[in-house]
């Protein structure tokens, strides 16, 4: 249904039945959630240039709400997800979170997808004193609100830590790249990481002969592709979101140019993995459906449910990855906070989270560092036979998998 601001709106009331224990845990009989639903409000970019990735977060959220309601809900009450479309626009996200809190009277909120909408929502959360769990904000030092908590382990300084993970992987290649072209969206988190990549690369002796920025949501990469081809560096680093990597690689192909090796920051995982241009490209991740990650509690069941739902939704790549896992972890953190504090009061939930470790699909999660972040856990994955595989650092690589040079 459309509200007065023209945003798509959907409610999920997923409760009221007797279920089993948490995903992957021993089955025990519990009373079904009952009574007045606990309303959790949030937005996702269901339309606009972030939609290809935000739909992944939506499916993951629906799986988690069903899981929570199959057990005890929140404090014995069923969870209702009030989800609105922020259209990939921070100003729309800001208005919708205001509406969720003041008009819809939600009990709790869940953060949106992507840094710019998250920052917009965070300002509203701070004004009303609401806890906000967010799954995907890539600029931790902007998370200055004390009751905002990250679900994904970026660490407090990903602009320093993650470029060095990439540079370590580059150094492991038979012929380590000596030059790098950086092309990035002006979307805040991508631009932040690109600047960090340039600084860290130059510190380690990798020259950056070309650094280009483009407007978020850009679709015409012809001129940028020509500049990349002319520079002809050993490595191409792309600060992309959604389909931008596909569009850039296609533009390069039209110029009969294939980058020697390329890294892509936050692309839509399915379209890039399945593209003829995507073979052996690198990408950021925190988790993939291989060992050692699949041995984590509940992970196999979550992966099965995600594959089933993503296939039904006609997603081109129905395999769980870090995008879906970020939203899974966000709901696990919110559930742990509510149950641990034994209340829906935001300040008490926040206080409990700061003092405790929450087990998520990412492992033990702490909020005791700068900007409520714990230790960084960034990984590199590579497209191999149209599937993403973790290839670096080595201790997280599944048996039989290795980084393939290009």
Q: What is the alpha-carbon Rg in Å?
A: 21 Å
> Tell me, what's the shape?
globular
Structural class by SSE content: alpha/beta
First-residue to last-residue Cα separation: 48 Å
- Characterize the biggest β-sheet: 7 strands, mixed
| Name of the level-1 CATH class of the largest domain | Alpha Beta
Helix run count:
11
Q: Per DSSP, what share of the residues sits in E-state strands of 2 or more residues? A: 15-25%
Output the strand order for the largest sheet: 8-7-9-10-11-14-15
What value does the average pLDDT take?
Answer: 92
Task: Quickly list its features.
globular; disordered N terminus; 406 residues; 2 domains; alpha/beta; Rossmann fold; seven-stranded mixed β-sheet
Verbal overview:
This protein has 406 residues and is α/β, with parallel strands linked by helices. The protein contains 11 helices and 15 strands. The protein has a 7-stranded mixed β-sheet, with helices on both faces. A 6-stranded mixed β-sheet has the order 1-3-2-4-5-6, sandwiched between helices. A two-stranded antiparallel ribbon has the order 12-13. The model is unreliable at 1-22 and 24-29 (pLDDT under 50).
What is this entry, summarized?
This protein is an alpha/beta fold. The protein is built from 11 helices and 15 strands. The N terminus is likely disordered.
């Amino acid at each position: 249904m459309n509200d007065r601001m023209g945003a798509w709106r959907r409610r999920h009331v997923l409760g009221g039945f007797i279920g089993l224990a948490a995903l992957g845990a021993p089955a025990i009989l519990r009373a079904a959630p009952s009574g007045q639903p606990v309303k959790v409000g949030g937005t996702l970019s269901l339309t606009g240039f972030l939609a290809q990735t935000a739909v992944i977060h939506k499916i993951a959220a629906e799986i988690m709400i069903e899981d929570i309601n199959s057990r005890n809900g929140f404090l014995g009450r069923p969870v209702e997800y009030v989800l609105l479309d922020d259209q990939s626009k921070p100003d729309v996200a800001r208005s919708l979170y205001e509406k969720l809190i003041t008009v819809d009277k939600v009990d709790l909120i869940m953060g949106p997808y992507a840094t710019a909408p998250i920052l917009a929502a965070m300002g509203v959360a701070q004004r009303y004193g609401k806890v906000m769990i967010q799954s995907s904000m890539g600029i931790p030092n902007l998370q200055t609100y004390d009751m905002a908590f990250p679900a994904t382990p970026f660490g407090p300084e990903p602009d320093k830590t993650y470029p060095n993970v990439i540079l370590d992987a580059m150094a492991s290649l038979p012929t380590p790249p000596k030059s790098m072209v950086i092309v990035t969206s002006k979307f805040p988190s991508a631009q932040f990481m690109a600047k960090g990549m340039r600084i860290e690369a130059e510190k380690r002796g990798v020259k950056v002969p070309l650094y280009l920025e483009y407007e978020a949501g850009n679709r015409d990469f012809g001129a940028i592709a020509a500049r990349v081809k002319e520079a002809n560096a050993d490595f191409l680093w792309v600060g992309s979101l959604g389909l931008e990597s596909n569009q850039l690689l296609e533009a390069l192909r039209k110029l009969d140019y294939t980058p020697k090796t390329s890294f892509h920051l936050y692309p839509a995982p399915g379209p890039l993995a399945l593209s003829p241009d995507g073979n052996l490209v690198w990408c950021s991740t925190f988790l993939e459906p291989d060992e050692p990650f699949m041995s984590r509690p509940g992970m196999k069941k979550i992966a099965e449910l995600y594959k089933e739902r993503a296939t039904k939704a006609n997603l081109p790549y129905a395999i769980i990855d870090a995008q879906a896992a970020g939203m899974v972890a966000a709901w696990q953190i919110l559930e742990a906070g509510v149950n641990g504090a034994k209340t829906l009061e935001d300040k008490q939930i926040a206080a409990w989270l700061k003092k405790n470790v929450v087990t998520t699909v990412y492992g033990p999660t702490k909020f005791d560092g700068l900007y409520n972040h714990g230790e960084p856990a960034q990984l590199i994955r590579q497209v191999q036979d149209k599937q993403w595989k973790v290839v670096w650092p080595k201790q997280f690589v599944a048996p039989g998998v290795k980084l393939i040079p290009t």
